[in-house]
Amino acid sequence: MLDDRVPCGYLSTTPDGVLVRVNATFLAWTGHRREDLVGRRRFVDLLPVGGRIYHETHYAPALRLQGTAREIALEVVCADGRRLPVLVNSVLERDADGTPRLIRTAVFDATERRRYEQEMLAATRRAEASEARAVELAQTLQQTLIPPTPPQVPGLDVAAAYRPAGDGRHVGGDFYDVFQVATDDWVVVLGDVQGKGVEAAVVTALARHTVRAAAVDHDAPRQVLHTLDQVLRGAATDRFCTAVLARLRRTDGTWRASVACAGHPLPLLRPSAGHPAPVGRHGPLLGVFPQPVFSDTEVTLAPGDTLVLFTDGVTEGRHRRGELYGNDRLAAVVAEHRGPAADVTDAILADVLRYQSGDARDDIAVVTVAVL
């Protein structure tokens, strides 16, 4: 018969599932004998326990209600006990009065498909595990880049905050550091490496440690930034970096700050009795241009003066309508909050997050230094 030679299994059963016809293809796949099946067993009898449950709860009801059941994934138990993955298409034929008469079923060998699905599942699990390891590594690296609490600096009140974008799983390149070079000689640096993930975290670590080493050899912030630029351009990465660096020295009881910027938002200086204003001059990105020029700006800090350093995750935070948070909003928050450095820092972070409905689109880092 023609249906014996088709490249798929073909079965006919009574409405209650008793096999009345089985083609040679199905018999060859499963190893069953025709005389053991026709008139003696039901189609559901060829399924394992799980398949029988699915047959009775999903397959058979759908066939009765809709008259068809398509691409049903099942397993058929072969004569030797092995299981053959199959896809089943069935049609319920009825008499003129609507009485169920016969069920015709086409069975397709899904062994290769099942193997492919299993390989895809295994590959997906490996990729997910690899991503989880990468995220864990990046987060571990970033924990070494962000000091948990700023140091105690005699004569200064220092506070800092860091908030990663989104759910925090993909670590970004924002970093800050506050460290001592000598007595009454401190460096505050805040930077932003392009991109996210492990490579960004590695470049961030390189930048932070380079600044620490260069600050020992060079007094001027512009020279430290120049050294960092050389290191980044010589590193095996195409990621650039922005940074703002302030060196604070106290002489005869008076603090002076020297500020240099490289492709970074200028810090805000709020006098004890005045409005905040940017301090410093813009410089080029780090790790990009062959002969960059950076400059220092010197300012004297009186008691009550406050210097605020921040990344572009603050001023470029976006409202739902797409509007940027902007410099004016930041300056207004700094002008309004004249308490401890921690209060100013917390107020900035809270206002930026509120502006973005609690969902930071970019990493946010803020360092506030107030003169006591």
TrEMBL record:
<dbReference type="InterPro" id="IPR052016">
    <property type="entry name" value="Bact_Sigma-Reg"/>
</dbReference>
<dbReference type="Pfam" id="PF13426">
    <property type="entry name" value="PAS_9"/>
</dbReference>
<dbReference type="InterPro" id="IPR036457">
    <property type="entry name" value="PPM-type-like_dom_sf"/>
</dbReference>
<dbReference type="InterPro" id="IPR035965">
    <property type="entry name" value="PAS-like_dom_sf"/>
</dbReference>
<feature type="domain" description="PAC">
    <location>
        <begin position="70"/>
        <end position="122"/>
    </location>
</feature>
<dbReference type="InterPro" id="IPR001932">
    <property type="entry name" value="PPM-type_phosphatase-like_dom"/>
</dbReference>
<feature type="domain" description="PPM-type phosphatase">
    <location>
        <begin position="157"/>
        <end position="371"/>
    </location>
</feature>
<keyword id="KW-0378">Hydrolase</keyword>
<keyword id="KW-0808">Transferase</keyword>
<dbReference type="GO" id="GO:0016301">
    <property type="term" value="F:kinase activity"/>
</dbReference>
<dbReference type="Pfam" id="PF07228">
    <property type="entry name" value="SpoIIE"/>
</dbReference>
<feature type="domain" description="PAS">
    <location>
        <begin position="1"/>
        <end position="47"/>
    </location>
</feature>
<dbReference type="InterPro" id="IPR000700">
    <property type="entry name" value="PAS-assoc_C"/>
</dbReference>
<protein>
    <submittedName>
        <fullName>Histidine kinase</fullName>
    </submittedName>
</protein>
<dbReference type="InterPro" id="IPR000014">
    <property type="entry name" value="PAS"/>
</dbReference>
<keyword id="KW-0418">Kinase</keyword>
